[in-house]
Amino acid sequence: MVTVKNHLLKFTQKLYHWNLYRAILATLWLVFPLEFVGVTFHIIYETCFHENGILETAWNLKTNLPGFQDLAYLLKSTNDLTFITVSLLLAFFSAEKLYELHVRQSHEHLAGITSLFIYFLLIVETASSLDLPQIATVASNLLIPILIGLLTGFIYSFIERRQPTKITTSYWATTHLIAIFSFLIVFIGALSFIIYQTQLYPNYLFQQVQNLFQSGKQPTFWRIILATTLGNLGHFLGIINEFTTNMGNHFSSEGANLAYLAVHHSLWKVPYPINLHTLYDSYGALGGNGMLLALGSTILLRVKNQQTRLVARLTFGQLLFDQGEALMFGVPILFNPLFFIPLLLAPFLSMTIGYLAISMHLVPPAAYVIPYATPGILRAFLGTNGNFGALAVSLLCVCVSGLVYYPFVNLLDQFTAQNGDELNV
Amino acid sequence: MYKWLRFIILATLMTYMGFLGLNWTQKNMRNAIPAADSRISPIILVPGSSATQERFDAMVNELNGKTKTTSSLLKVTVHTDNHLSYSGTFKPGRSHPYIVIAFANNHDGYSNIKKQAAWFNHAIKILSAKYQFNHFSAIGHSNGGLVLTRYLEKYFNPQKLRITTLMTIASPFNFSETNIDKRTQMLSDMIKANTKIPSNLIMYSVAGTENYNNDGTVPFASVEAGKYIYQNTAKKYTQITVTGEDSTHHDLPQNGEIVSLIQQYILHVNNLPDQPNINIRH
């Protein structure tokens, strides 16, 4: 264990001295405030303005609140725009930061603007239609803007070194930028066209992977573990798309459970006691993917570093509503090798606990329909029609995941102690 | 201090949400509609006043004679102490089984119709559990149609049961009143409660006429008054008038025309042989 820790620390340190990685860290920290605000409003939308959201059902806002539909629409489009802006800023700042780290001088933001332009063209042109929600869906994948930003920043710093005259001078800009932007429009257009026309192929690949999980129809423990681990791995790398979020969502088992419940009203004998909903949603994703509620609590209890504490304190309320994105930006957890192991291990252990509890008939499987955006720790409780055993199992899962995160959170303190204030690039 | 306040606020919020969420979940599941129809969909027959459970024997014989498959006929009488007596058979086959629900107390009058609707509700609860069906069609003759209307307005729970088609045969919605402007207490009560009529119900009201005014017992205007209850509340409301042979009030159930209507609208049996569709090209 100690050697593993040392290796991890060394690896992180090595990574940290790499300009590409430092650019990512700096970018994530810069974008954190906007992401935090976006997530906060997203929670308000989901709990209060989404149909069957938990507070919407509680106060019956749809009928009681005048202008409910208009407010919901306003909030939804604001959310979409905020998250698109977050992605655009990721593209902008990752190019900027990399350029600054390489060249260490001002350049009137040409790298950032170019990267922003490339990314914006790309998401709009590859979205399945030109409306806001579709573009927001494409933009939710965080790996793409970061990669584009890094690539652009790298190319600009490469040009900068070769160029005898500095690219910030107006002469270079006027003669070259026209050519660069014209080229980009044609190039991105062609690229998008190809991606759009061949969308079938990635979709086909995803289909095949999904079929692999669902062969035999009956969801099994290992199949669910495999699907969710793959999804969490994607989220660790910022790959948030339909595939990684809905990986195991296509089992028909939940519908069958509900049909049974509608007639018999008994949870103990539902036809599929083990499925994605009863294991992952109820016990394996408290605080969002990767049991982040446990990580947030552990940071609050243990970490001394002020910046990390601030992030955890701010985002704790969001974690209760399973929105871990702001925490992933702030600590950061995205691309952070220190958290790679617990991020995959904590959900696995939690789901194992859930699986054992259900198969030993300690708690019934959570098969009831629950309000939208129900806080994670309440999901099993509500889904089992108020079984306090299920609530206890949820809390146990958070504690066990906290223990899994604990040694790695300790590493975070060691790491910041060694690198000092340098972390705040 | 601030830290604790924060903790307390979050804990209170969680408890509050847990409490209300549970409330919603339970309500939601209680109202959950079984996703699939049961395989069995019986046709419930309700006789009118002074008629017994044997009232529909002739009609069912007629119907069975006209269709290829023979449906079983179960006759149930609800006694005043709520106990049920059975005769006949119930066979869940390919065709719709018939269940007659008759009442030991079969007197006329609004107060008795109220009682009969309660008895009917009691009987259908027991029968749907016993023979495992969750949807049915119903035919009510004379006061039987009134009992069914009262049942739909007062007792019917669309989350538990579904009624596809209702046919009333010569049901006097305004009793013996010939003037439509003079509404009896029952008719005004039924119009007032008509919001409870299931919105997906397909309703046929059949009237018989021996002369231009009535079928010998029930005035045509009284049957027609049903439109004030069903029109625009049910999905479809169709008023049909039958004349000619066997169109007196008591003969109506076995009236050949009405038997054909039942076949067509409730059994959905098409008498015509399948015709080849000449427009299909291969």
Automatic annotation (TrEMBL), chain A:
Domain PTS EIIC type-3: 4-408
Record GO biological process: phosphoenolpyruvate-dependent sugar phosphotransferase system
Transmembrane segments: 20-45, 81-99, 111-130, 142-159, 171-196, 283-303, 324-346, 352-374, 386-406
Localization (cell): Cell membrane
Record's bilayer topology term: Multi-pass membrane protein
Keywords in alphabetical order: Cell membrane, Membrane, Sugar transport, Transmembrane, Transmembrane helix, Transport
Official protein name in the record: Cellobiose PTS, EIIC
Organism (species): Pediococcus cellicola
